[in-house]
Amino acid sequence: MKKLTVKALVGIGMLSSISYILMLLNFPLPPFPGFLMIDFSDIPALIAALIFGPIAGILVELIKNILDYFMTGSATGVPVGHLANFAAGVLFILPTYYIYNKMKTKKGMTFGLVIGTFIMATVMSVLNYFVIYPAYTLFLNMPAMSAPEIRTVVVTAILPFNLVKGLLITFVFMLLFARMSPWIKKQGSFKTAI
């Protein structure tokens, strides 16, 4: 791993703060339960990954969630939701980054974002079933849900929500990418970071 340059550190810091602000601007989508919120905070993390490398994208996801945990807290007292958000962000940006790095075209970016969406939605469904929902019930001292109840919530709410969220982020990012791709490529060509 190469040393972080000052440019990379400043870029990661700026993109993390933008990501945190975007995380605060979350909103619900009517057909889904109120605790599932859409935000576009993964976009700065994806930009960081494209410019400085995948570790930079992971760092932006991490810093954003740490900031949010300390500023807004957690209903459980433990950052279960923040860990879930971090996992979802990483599962979305890493496949996108690696696929785009292989193809280096707008079509490659679109393909990467769609694959990233499906990987994120699928793995988060599994994590919700086995880890996240049980953790919430444990830390909130709620009665445990049965396996069929959790499966129903995951299949009817979590999976479709993550697919919709990923596709919305894909749409917004592709609008930005159409304008920013020359700048991102120029910044990425000076990659001396992670």
Automatic annotation (TrEMBL):
Residues spanning the membrane: 6-25, 45-63, 83-100, 112-133, 153-177
Subcellular location field: Cell membrane
Pfam families associated with the record: ECF_trnsprt
InterPro entries for the chain: ECF_trnsprt_substrate-spec (IPR024529), RibU (IPR025720)
Predominant place of localization: membrane
Keyword match Signal: no
Key word Membrane present: yes
Keywords, sorted A to Z: Cell membrane, Membrane, Transmembrane, Transmembrane helix, Transport
Topological category with respect to the lipid bilayer: Multi-pass membrane protein
Function: Probably a riboflavin-binding protein that interacts with the energy-coupling factor (ECF) ABC-transporter complex.
Family in the record: Belongs to the prokaryotic riboflavin transporter (P-RFT) (TC 2.A.87) family.
PANTHER family, A to Z: RIBOFLAVIN TRANSPORTER RIBU (PTHR38438:SF1)
Name of the protein this chain belongs to: Riboflavin transporter
Native organism: Cytobacillus eiseniae
Species lineage: Bacteria, Bacillati, Bacillota, Bacilli, Bacillales
